[in-house]
């Protein structure tokens, strides 16, 4: 039954996160910041980018299950990081139905009826309010680029990191 499978997979991710937290401490949500700005949201985004690149390179199959669990865990940790940064309960942002998603889609349609034209004519936007590191800006541009038409030659213009 699907409900049991959802519980099993989520329990597996929960157990993996707890095991890694016990082994490594709270490094994901309180990074040292030796090689970056020490922000958990940025650090988790970079880790997720690494996992997404691995999936892109190796494909999705039985050999990528470990990477998918890691990505699932990083998404969970990112939710926790945002809750802490914004002092919110993320469950308040979740709807019991699809009304939240429906509203987001309707708002997006109102803002731009020509999504591809908008992507072609605009630079990638920053979706977070934080001061982003160059690596995170790079990650964000890659994600936005993947949302556009699939064209191997098309790349967003990169601003030099300063």
Fold blueprint:
Layout: H1 2-24, H2 40-58, H3 65-86, H4 99-111, H5 115-121, H6 134-147
Helix pairs in contact: 1-3, 2-3
Nearest-integer average pLDDT: 77
Which residues sit in consecutive blocks of at least 5 with pLDDT less than 50?
122-133, 150-156
Question: N-to-C SSE series?
Answer: HHHHHH
- What's the number of domains? 2
Beta content: under 5%
Could you explain how this protein is built, in words?
The chain has 162 residues and is mainly α. It has 2 domains: 1-94; 95-162, no CATH class. It contains 6 helices and no strands. It has helices at 2-24, 40-58, 65-86, 99-111, 115-121, 134-147. Helix 1 crosses helix 3 (65-86) and helix 2 (40-58) packs antiparallel against helix 3. The longest helix is centred in the first third of the chain and has 23 residues, at 2-24. The chain is globular. The model is unreliable at 122-133 and 150-156 (pLDDT under 50).
